[in-house]
Specification:
Blueprint lengths: L3 H6 L19 H12 L1 H16 L3 H25 L6 H9 L1 H34 L3 H4 L2 H21 L1 H28 L19 H15 L15 H31 L17 H10 L1 H35 L18 H21 L1 H9 L1 H19 L8 H29 L8 E2 L2 E2 H23 L1 H5 L1 H4 L9
Antiparallel strand pairs: 1-2
Helix pairs in contact: 2-9, 2-11, 2-13, 3-10, 3-13, 4-10, 4-11, 4-16, 4-17, 5-6, 5-16, 6-8, 6-13, 6-14, 6-15, 6-16, 6-18, 8-9, 8-13, 8-14, 9-11, 9-13, 10-16, 12-13, 13-14, 14-15, 15-18, 16-17, 17-18
Amino acid sequence: MPNPIDAEAGPGSAPAPPDKGLRGGSVGLLASVTLGLSCVAPAYSIAVTLGFVTLTVGNLAPAALLLGFVPILLTAFAFRELNREMPDCGTTFVWTTRAFGPLTGWLTGGWVVQIATLIAMTALSQVGAGYLLQLLGLHSLADRSLAVTITAVALLATVTAIAYRGLHLAASVQYVLLGLQLTALLGFGAAAFARHGAVTPSLTWLDPFAFDGIGPFAEAVMLCLFIYWGWDALITANEETRDGERVAGQAAVISTLALLGTYLFTAFAAISFAGTGTGGTGLNNPDNAADILSTLAPPVLGPALAKVMQLAVCVSAVSALLTSLVGSSRGTLSMAAHGALPATFARIHPRHRTPGFGTLFIGATAAGLLVLLTLVSTDFLGDAVLCIGLLIACYYGTTALACVWYFRGRLRDSLRDLLLRGVLPLLGGLMMLAAFARSAHDMYDPAYGSTSFHGIGGVFLLGAGSLATGTLALAAARTRYHRFFRHGRSTVTELTVTED
């Protein structure tokens, strides 16, 4: 059955994105890939995740990284195909609205994405602040919550100012920041392989059938799911990208493949050098799990170059913070432009051509959330970060299934359409929803994370609470934005709010 909206547009036609006032042609393929990689924060992500993966599955960590990549790649195909058809900076909000209607679009494509990003921004600013204070030699301040929080708020203010000035400036800054990260990771890997005593990597480390039961396998893959998250932020810049309906989709696939290569190389190098022992620098030593690169960098690189690795992790967090802010402000811009949020979010700065109000609002909200979570409990903030996995699986899975449903009438047109718009996104969506269900089950355990309430895990309550709060916000939005919720599938094809 053909999609009725497609029939209106004409066979094979892709509606041009409505002009929201952004500066078109600001970035090309390289800058788009850079933005995607930067939002993932590769140095930070592998540093804080690899240790926990090896604690779970030992030297099968590369296999877990590879398997965790599969649903990400399948979802990336869905993002690419949907972007070709509907290039809009609202991405998942627009796509899920077109496929499933305004209720699903507003909640999973809008609210869930924004909440996940805001929580991630609080963690990234805190991590970046801690590393910055240590690099400056202010170790006593790095151990004080107040000093770290003040520094984190200052970092948020800085990246907000950069994002406010425009995507071209943000992309230029990211070239330097991402270059430092990749150079540090590749240098670490090469040095680790060259160290005396490093063992020769084995292909058995990639064996997907060697896991000791479904439990460790699922836990490791879900951990790996988090370290790939963020590449989709580059697609929110599609209206500012040259040939955005094609290039942004290409950049999504390229960035995910680049991440896989970087992570596998680093994991192989770390296991070859340190092994999976439970003592010393061994990767199965629980004392090393929280930041494996800080543990391994001094013996691998020496004290001086270990500082460079520390700088790379700091830069990684700040870089991801900047890209998260860029993507989030464009998401709220699209929602407002299509009549699903207050019109003020659609305001474009007359000189910088950026969503000025949205950028400032997201930056200030992230700072306020950071202060609030810190005042409640530092453990509470840590659990808030863990719940992001639940939100990621929710909106990635919904978007992948939206691709299948939207193109359902065209899947017989060619083998390419059947695979890239049907089979592969369907598999990716089902994997993501399975990860969602498994994550919810595990998070319910009061031993999961650092907090609990009446026998229920604090991580589960935060994740489920975010979704429940979104449902309440959705109910409130329906009373105000009548046109969008009555005609959502058509309103996202045109502008409801136009800014000069």
